[in-house]
Design a protein that fits this description.
This protein is about 15% helix and about 20% strand. By secondary structure, it is of the alpha+beta class.
Amino acid sequence: MSPVRRCSRTACGRPAVATLTYVYADSTAVLGPLATYAEPHCYDLCAEHSERLTAPRGWEVVRLAVDPGQVRPSGDDLEALANAVREAARTPRRDPSGAAPSDAVGGPNGRDSDPMEVARRGHLRVLRSPEP
């Protein structure tokens, strides 16, 4: 399965760039940037279908600005994700008995011995209050 979300229109295989939702109580169709997750009550549309969208008579179409540069993750986003994965892989696992490994971060021989860091769990760190 392709990681790229496709247009919801029948027989259209182009990548989606916008998400369409309906607010039935207000008789409004809202077309905005591509949603983070595919939702069953929303429709993903390609650029062509989002430009040609019309609503039924009596309905209003609200078009939120779609930034074409935000359709794909930026290099900064991908680099931040890669750094987070590397950091998580370097974090030592704690023993279920509660004893910290000798190479624990912030331990006696910690790799990143930061005097303020007390413990770490995944991407979260426990910090000691600074001395007054």
